[in-house]
Design brief:
Elements: H1 11-18, E1 22-27, E2 30-35, E3 40-45, E4 59-65, E5 68-74, H2 75-78, H3 89-92, E6 96-101, E7 107-111, E8 114-119, H4 126-130, E9 142-144, E10 150-153, H5 156-159, H6 162-188
Length: 193
């Protein structure tokens, strides 16, 4: 199913065939996109979130996914739609999470207002093919969707810089240490025969 408008033929069809699909989502009144498959691995409902040792205003909490601890970032706060991350179950009930792969490994979940669709871009700017790997999407590019609306293309480095990721990793390490401390303390407090 094609969700992006074709502007003109010839090389466009070949470029579109090489372009990766885009996950379209909404924050407030604006639509955004992230590469599906390459970045966005899954769209999922919000599970029960646990608090971090320190809660920055853009963090809703974290959850376990197998053995991994995944931080939930409220993308609405990072993009200026909200001032404080949503963390109450009633506020999270109908909001999806985009489970995303981070450059260099690891994952993070992005809280968005609505997951709209997976689109296949109709146009590919020359920089997307010449300046990077084929199928990569240029940051800041506007994608015109089939319904005539526009989605603003994001890149994970726009959402989480290297320094921010290091701070987030440090916060998660503190959270792991705190959980281990409480788990050890619970084990010592048990009555033994």
């Amino acid at each position: 199913m094609d969700h992006a408008r074709t502007h003109n033929g010839s090389g466009q069809e070949h470029a579109r065939a090489n372009a990766a699909p885009v996950m379209i989502f909404r924050l407030g009144a604006r639509q955004y996109g992230l590469p599906a498959g390459l970045v966005v691995r899954e769209c999922m409902p919000v599970p029960e979130l646990l608090p971090m040792a320190v809660m920055p205003p853009h963090v809703s909490g974290w959850f376990r996914l197998g053995a991994a601890m995944v931080v939930v970032l409220d993308l609405g706060v990072l993009l200026g739609e909200r001032t404080q991350a949503l963390s109450q179950p009633v506020d999270l009930l109908y909001r999806p999470l985009l489970l995303c792969s981070l450059p260099g490994g690891g994952q993070v979940a992005l809280l968005v207002d609505m997951a709209c669709d997976v689109a296949h871009p109709a146009t590919v700017s020359p920089g997307m093919l010449d300046g990077g790997p084929q199928g990569a999407h240029a940051t800041g590019q506007e994608l015109e969707l089939k319904d005539g609306s526009i989605a603003f293309m994001l890149h994970m480095s726009d959402i989480l810089s290297r320094d921010e990721r290091m701070r987030l990793d440090d916060l998660m390490e503190r959270t792991r240490a705190r959980a281990a401390l409480w788990a050890a303390d619970e084990g010592e407090g048990e009555c033994r025969p």
